[in-house]
Specification:
Helix content is 33%, strand content 32%. It has 3 helices and 4 strands, in the order αβαβαββ. Strand 3 and strand 4 form a beta hairpin. The longest helix is centred in the middle third of the chain and has 15 residues. About 11% of the residues have low confidence.
Protein backbone atom coordinates (compact mmCIF):
# COMPACT_ATOMS: atom_id res chain seq x y z
CA UNK A 1 0.00 0.00 0.00
CA UNK A 2 2.95 2.35 0.62
CA UNK A 3 3.92 2.27 -3.07
CA UNK A 4 0.55 3.77 -3.97
CA UNK A 5 1.31 7.11 -2.27
CA UNK A 6 4.19 8.13 -4.58
CA UNK A 7 2.15 7.12 -7.62
CA UNK A 8 -0.85 9.14 -6.42
CA UNK A 9 1.39 12.15 -5.77
CA UNK A 10 2.91 11.86 -9.24
CA UNK A 11 -0.55 11.70 -10.84
CA UNK A 12 -1.71 14.80 -8.92
CA UNK A 13 1.44 16.73 -9.83
CA UNK A 14 1.06 15.78 -13.49
CA UNK A 15 -2.59 16.82 -13.48
CA UNK A 16 -1.78 20.22 -11.96
CA UNK A 17 1.15 20.82 -14.28
CA UNK A 18 -1.07 19.89 -17.21
CA UNK A 19 -3.32 22.84 -16.38
CA UNK A 20 -0.67 25.37 -17.43
CA UNK A 21 -1.77 27.43 -20.42
CA UNK A 22 0.88 28.12 -23.06
CA UNK A 23 0.85 31.31 -25.11
CA UNK A 24 0.21 30.68 -28.78
CA UNK A 25 2.79 32.10 -31.22
CA UNK A 26 0.41 34.94 -32.14
CA UNK A 27 -0.37 35.76 -28.51
CA UNK A 28 3.30 36.40 -27.85
CA UNK A 29 2.86 39.56 -29.96
CA UNK A 30 -0.22 40.84 -28.12
CA UNK A 31 0.58 43.65 -25.73
CA UNK A 32 -1.50 45.20 -22.98
CA UNK A 33 -2.52 48.73 -23.84
CA UNK A 34 -3.66 51.77 -21.87
CA UNK A 35 -6.95 53.64 -22.12
CA UNK A 36 -5.21 56.34 -24.17
CA UNK A 37 -3.67 53.81 -26.55
CA UNK A 38 -6.95 51.97 -27.15
CA UNK A 39 -8.50 55.16 -28.59
CA UNK A 40 -6.21 54.78 -31.61
CA UNK A 41 -7.11 51.11 -32.16
CA UNK A 42 -10.02 49.18 -33.64
CA UNK A 43 -12.20 47.41 -31.07
CA UNK A 44 -12.72 43.72 -31.85
CA UNK A 45 -14.39 41.97 -28.94
CA UNK A 46 -15.03 41.91 -25.20
CA UNK A 47 -13.21 38.91 -23.71
CA UNK A 48 -13.87 37.23 -20.37
CA UNK A 49 -11.95 34.26 -18.99
CA UNK A 50 -12.40 32.43 -15.70
CA UNK A 51 -9.73 30.02 -14.50
CA UNK A 52 -10.86 27.72 -11.70
CA UNK A 53 -8.10 25.08 -11.66
CA UNK A 54 -4.32 24.99 -11.63
CA UNK A 55 -1.51 26.54 -9.66
CA UNK A 56 -1.36 29.86 -11.59
CA UNK A 57 -5.01 30.79 -11.98
CA UNK A 58 -4.47 34.49 -12.68
CA UNK A 59 -1.60 33.88 -15.11
CA UNK A 60 -3.56 31.22 -16.99
CA UNK A 61 -6.65 33.44 -17.21
CA UNK A 62 -4.51 36.22 -18.73
CA UNK A 63 -2.81 33.83 -21.16
CA UNK A 64 -6.22 32.58 -22.29
CA UNK A 65 -7.34 36.17 -22.90
CA UNK A 66 -4.19 36.97 -24.90
CA UNK A 67 -4.58 33.74 -26.90
CA UNK A 68 -8.19 34.66 -27.75
CA UNK A 69 -7.13 38.19 -28.73
CA UNK A 70 -4.54 36.79 -31.13
CA UNK A 71 -7.01 34.21 -32.50
CA UNK A 72 -9.39 36.95 -33.63
CA UNK A 73 -6.64 39.03 -35.19
CA UNK A 74 -5.92 41.42 -32.34
CA UNK A 75 -2.58 42.69 -31.14
CA UNK A 76 -3.69 44.85 -28.20
CA UNK A 77 -5.51 43.92 -25.00
CA UNK A 78 -7.01 46.47 -22.62
CA UNK A 79 -7.62 45.07 -19.12
CA UNK A 80 -11.02 46.14 -17.79
CA UNK A 81 -10.85 44.12 -14.56
CA UNK A 82 -9.11 41.20 -12.89
CA UNK A 83 -9.92 39.28 -9.76
CA UNK A 84 -8.36 36.41 -7.87
CA UNK A 85 -10.03 34.36 -5.17
CA UNK A 86 -8.64 31.17 -3.66
CA UNK A 87 -12.00 29.37 -3.74
CA UNK A 88 -13.46 30.81 -6.94
CA UNK A 89 -10.32 31.10 -9.06
CA UNK A 90 -9.26 34.03 -11.19
CA UNK A 91 -10.95 36.06 -13.89
CA UNK A 92 -9.87 38.53 -16.51
CA UNK A 93 -12.21 40.85 -18.38
CA UNK A 94 -10.78 42.89 -21.20
CA UNK A 95 -11.17 44.30 -24.66
CA UNK A 96 -9.36 42.97 -27.71
CA UNK A 97 -8.08 45.55 -30.21
CA UNK A 98 -6.26 45.69 -33.51
CA UNK A 99 -3.72 48.49 -33.28
CA UNK A 100 -1.53 49.98 -36.01
Amino acid sequence: MESVKPIAALIMFTALAGCAVPLTPGAQNVRTISATQKERCEFLKLITFNQRLGPDKSGNAMKNALNETAAIGGNGFYIVSTSTDWAEGASVVGEAYRCK
